[in-house]
Amino acid sequence: MNIHAERPGLASSGMPPPPVHLLPRIGSSGAGTFLEEGRLLKQALAHCLPPGFALERGMRLLDFGCGVGRLEFQLVEESRDVEIWGCDIDEESIAWLAAHFGPGFRFFCNGSRPPLDAPPAHFEVVLALSVLTHIPDGWCAWLEELRRVLKPGGLGLLSFQSVIPFVKTVGPATTLHRAGFVVDGAENDWEACGPQVYQSNDWILENWSSVLPVQAIFAEGLGFQSLAVVRKGPATGKPAVLQPFVHVHPQNGFHGWVDYDPWKPRNWWLESGWCERLEPGPLHGWFVSDCAPLRSVHALGAGGRELPVTHTSRPDVAGAHPEVRWAVDAGFTIPRDALLGLGSGKHVVTITAADWDGRVHWLRVQVTIR
């Protein structure tokens, strides 16, 4: 049985949504978006599963830090065959879940330190989504606890905050790359979402792998947070670092994007980013500066190889930015032949734009050539 990426949540069965006052505790935007947030989260997780992996009858899955069940609302169909366990430090959320979910679910409270109230080698899958992102001290003890409750060969999907959220909320990317591990708001209590922990990909690969070997990292694979896929067992091969979404440098008043649908591939391990086989033709995108028209757009492949870029008209972008009179000239195109010239395999292409006020914006996209 696979995780179903497109199934509706419990709203269709008449189950009430969680109390509104519990939603801010999981960072939800509100009751109107709660189910959609869970649907997209489940869809992303399904795309990050290793090729060939499937949930089978009799398996157990633990959602460590489940909150008020954003993901559990989407796992009702799976709960018919798979035991879905959830735990959280918030007693009120756990009490609400236990009172409203059916027999395929089990919920319990955990403390601020290990252990969990679960037997060793009990779960085939463990999730920790937006949990280790708030644990500046004791992260290793919690990783060891997740390893304890995982069965040999068990799979873990663990989220972390990396470059994009760090740049957006804290400081320049070079600070995180240099330090590897940064804590912001260490004094924050849980009502303020607690401390914020940021880690570089290299730090995750070096430190988490010493406890649970990392098989892959999906950069911003959950949209804002990144996801590490880990296994209980010996390390096997070099971890893959994949980028399903466009990696956009945060820049106020300067916007950009590449035109491709990251949800189109069924498995991001095999087809991550813009894929020549899925999206034949050139690579299109756009930049819009609120301050001044574009002066230049450049694209670089691996090793600093410059790729040709042509400017194009984008009436659709102009329609989305009616206040920017030069937005119609926002488009750019990288010819397909130039991308094919990179050779087969996965490549990272960085596209940089400058406006006539001297402001610079960039985005990065993974390109897969087959």
Can you walk through the features of this model?
The protein has 370 residues and is an alpha/beta fold. It folds into 2 domains: 10-242, Vaccinia Virus protein VP39 (Rossmann fold, 3-Layer(aba) Sandwich), CATH 3.40.50.150; 247-369, Immunoglobulin-like (Sandwich), CATH 2.60.40. The chain is built from 8 helices and 20 strands. The strands form 4 sheets. Strands 3-2-1-4-5-9-8-10 form an 8-stranded mixed sheet, with helices on both faces. Strands 11, 13, 15, 16, 19 and 20 form a 6-stranded mixed sheet that branches. The chain has a 4-stranded antiparallel sheet with strand order 12-14-18-17. It is globular and about 60 Å long. Mean pLDDT is 91; it is low at 1-13.
Radius of gyration: 22 Å
Q: How much is the average pLDDT? A: 91
- Here the CATH topology of the largest domain equals Rossmann fold
Strand order of the largest sheet: 3-2-1-4-5-9-8-10
CATH class of the largest domain: Alpha Beta
Q: Give the DSSP E fraction (strand runs of 2 or more residues).
A: 25-35%
Give the end-to-end Cα distance, rounded to a whole number of Å.
Answer: 29 Å
CATH architecture of the largest domain: 3-Layer(aba) Sandwich
Low-confidence stretches: 1-13
**Fourth-tier CATH superfamily name of the largest domain:** Vaccinia Virus protein VP39
Our count of domains comes out at: 2
What is the succession of H and E elements?
HEEHEEHEHHEEHEEEEEEEEEEHEHEE
Largest sheet: 8 strands, mixed
Number of strands: 20
Number of helices in the DSSP assignment: 8
Q: What is the SS-derived class?
A: alpha/beta
